[in-house]
């Protein structure tokens, strides 16, 4: 597999990783990574520096590998390699042109996990699902266009890929494109005087699947181009299926003629899943991963995530990963801990402050306020040091929680404690005690109450 498909695979994986780690972790460690190559069973991820490589290797290796295995459906091994960030820019520069060329060679990549059989049907998505299926059974005839809309993480992209995969298996020439990519390709094509090539690519398919159309609304030239593509395909009875986060009538700046085209077919809403559907989805996802989860735990998780299915999946993965990490069997209590913990650095920081305070025979608020006696200052420095070690909270955040200090105070504290540890057995013992206290609190599962 070449570079561009390694990058595409990696982008899909990043999408999944994004819901499995905290926002801050994602930003710090994953955001600036790229998919460099995928040869044999080795997947090389490019990272900006050795520090990031080390962290990913230590903390996220198995999660990343598992995600890649899921996305590629094969047994890949991940390797982190330092690559200069410039790697990115020539690519994005030429993304449009290369993409046109690349996709003419082979079919676009569909996520093999996003099939009809892995799509759970419930009240909220029944119509969209049935209509999507119909577009493959009777392309261009029953519902054209099919316009599917719904909130984030409710399965729109999944459905479009399912349509594409099924169409492919029936030798229907289906083309999937996000509206964002369509726009970028269009702009690049114009700049390079390759408009003709661009138009041909989109006007010669049997089926056009265009994701997140809201992205082009208001971009007049792109809308114009899409309008013509739409008409040509529609006149030739080619199937067009569109997704959006809003119904056509609410797309803010969409030109009226395009809006009325969209309204000329079937409009199907996807609503958030009800409890029973959420449960069914969780059961299916757990089964897919080969993990046994008791009914009460699935119910617990289903109650926690009322919004999107992506969030639901994220919680499930988190619980599974956590159970693995602490080598415990899955129960509602463990799920509660997993959901409260892992991503929540703030919770961990609170826990550190509690544990440090108790080991110094103080109250957490002694550390949180500006109290300045020597003993409090030392305790606060220990808490800063541990906050730095055990969380991904920023220096500013740690300082802020501990007496409203600035980041340089935190750096100073870390240096000082680091310097003292070796020479001071009593400090070593204290740190061990604090670790034990934190451990027992985490073990007792009372983190969720810490903030109350
Ligand atoms: P959207 O495009 O609407 O933002 P996605 O299609 O990306 O949402 O779905 C988010 C995640 O939820 C994906 O991993 C997808 O597989 C999963 N998902 C969504 N709907 C369903 C469903 N009905 N059954 C199983 N998984 C689903
Ligand atoms: Mg989507």
Q: What can you see in these coordinates?
A:
This protein is of the alpha/beta class. Helices cover 59% and strands 10% of the residues. The chain has helices at residues 3-18, 23-30, 50-72, 88-105, 126-137, 156-169, 179-191, 195-203, 220-235, 256-262, 275-288, 295-304, 309-325, 332-340, 345-359, 364-368, 374-390, 395-401, 407-423, 425-444, and strands at 34-39, 42-47, 77-82, 146-150, 174-178, 207-211, 239-244, 266-270. The strands form two sheets. The chain has a five-stranded parallel sheet with strand order 5-6-7-4-8, sandwiched between helices. The protein has a three-stranded mixed sheet with strand order 1-2-3. Helix 9 links the parallel strand 6 and strand 7 (239-244). The radius of gyration is 26 Å and the shape is elongated. The two termini are 52 Å apart. Bound molecules: adenosine-5'-diphosphate and magnesium ion (MG). Residues 114, 118-120, 125, 150, 152-158, 281, 309-310, 313 line the site of adenosine-5'-diphosphate.
Bound molecules: adenosine-5'-diphosphate, magnesium ion
| Basic shape | elongated
The average pLDDT value, as a whole number, equals: 85
Radius of gyration: 26 Å
Uncertain stretches: 85-107, 443-452
Query: Beta-strand level of the residues, as a percent range?
Result: 5-15%
Structural class: alpha/beta
Biggest beta sheet attributes: 5 strands, parallel
């Amino acid at each position: 597999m070449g570079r561009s498909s390694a990058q595409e695979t990696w982008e899909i994986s990043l999408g999944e990783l994004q819901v499995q780690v905290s926002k801050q972790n994602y930003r710090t460690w994953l955001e600036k990574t790229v998919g460099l190559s995928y040869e044999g069973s080795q997947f090389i991820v490019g990272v900006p520096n050795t520090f990031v490589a080390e962290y990913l290797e230590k903390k996220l290796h198995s999660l990343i590998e598992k995600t890649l295995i899921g996305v590629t459906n094969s047994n890949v091994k991940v390797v982190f390699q330092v690559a200069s960030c410039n790697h990115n820019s020539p690519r994005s520069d030429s993304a449009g042109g290369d993409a046109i060329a690349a996709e003419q060679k082979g079919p676009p990549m569909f996520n093999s996990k996003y099939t009809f059989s892995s799509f759970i049907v419930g009240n909220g998505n029944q119509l969209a699902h049935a209509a999507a299926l119909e577009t493959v059974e009777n392309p261009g005839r029953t519902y054209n266009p099919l316009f599917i809309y719904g909130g984030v993480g409710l399965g729109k992209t999944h459905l479009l890929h399912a349509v594409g995969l099924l169409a492919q298996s029936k030798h229907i020439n289906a083309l999937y494109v996000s509206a964002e990519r369509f726009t970028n390709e269009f702009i690049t094509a114009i700049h390079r005087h390759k408009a003709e090539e661009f138009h041909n690519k989109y006007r010669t398919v049997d089926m056009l699947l265009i994701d997140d159309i809201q992205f082009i609304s208001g971009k007049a030239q792109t809308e114009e181009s899409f309008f013509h593509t739409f008409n040509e395909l529609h006149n030739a009875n080619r199937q067009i299926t569109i997704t959006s986060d809003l119904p056509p009538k609410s797309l803010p700046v969409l030109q009226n003629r395009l809006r009325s085209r969209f309204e000329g077919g079937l409009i199907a809403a996807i609503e958030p899943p009800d409890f029973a559907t959420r449960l069914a989805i969780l059961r299916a996802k757990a089964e897919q991963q080969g993990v046994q989860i008791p009914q009460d735990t699935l119910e617990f998780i289903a109650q926690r995530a009322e919004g999107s299915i992506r969030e639901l999946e994220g919680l499930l993965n988190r619980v599974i990963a956590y159970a693995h990490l602490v080598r415990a069997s899955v129960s509602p209590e463990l799920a509660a801990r997993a959901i409260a913990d892992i991503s929540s650095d703030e919770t961990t920081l609170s826990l550190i402050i509690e544990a440090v305070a108790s080991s110094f025979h103080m109250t957490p608020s002694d550390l949180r306020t500006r109290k300045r006696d020597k003993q409090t200052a030392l305790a606060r420095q220990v808490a800063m040091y541990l906050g730095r070690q055990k969380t991904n909270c920023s220096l500013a955040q740690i300082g802020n929680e501990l007496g409203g200090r600035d980041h340089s105070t935190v750096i100073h504290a870390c240096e000082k404690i680091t310097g003292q540890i070796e020479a001071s057995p009593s400090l070593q013992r204290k740190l061990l005690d604090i670790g034990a206290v934190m451990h027992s609190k985490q073990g007792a599962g009372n983190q969720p109450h810490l903030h109350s």
